[in-house]
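Predict the structure of VOC domain-containing protein.
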Amino acid sequence: MKLNHINLGVTDVPQAVEIFERFFGLRQADGMPRTDAMTFLLDDADSLISVFRARDVAYPKVFHIGFLQDSPAQVRAIHAQLTQGGFTVPAPRENHGRLTFYFDAPFGVVIEVESFLGGDAQDGREEGS
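Done. Here is the predicted structure for VOC domain-containing protein.
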């Protein structure tokens, strides 16, 4: 069995699309609609994420979507890009063998960015720790 798609309700579809494309490398799914009310995006593995406008976005506290990176350096780079883009994002932290941070996206979804630390735990430590 293969997961077909994940549907995200968001408060602002164009804003969500811009953030997903600019910072997370998602792209428009060919042949699918792209409007202010809905769009369909693909990741590098061609997993489909449908994004629909919703008035009241209220996910459970533990709900989030996660983007796995190949290295801690990529986690730090995405963090820097989001920060430079004007977003307030907590610093990446080492947690259970991973370097990770959570981003409360302004359209109502929490996004996690993470990478496994591998054999080099120093790579995930913040300066001064």
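Strands lie at 5-10, 27-28, 38-42, 48-53, 65-68, 93-95, 98-104, 110-116.
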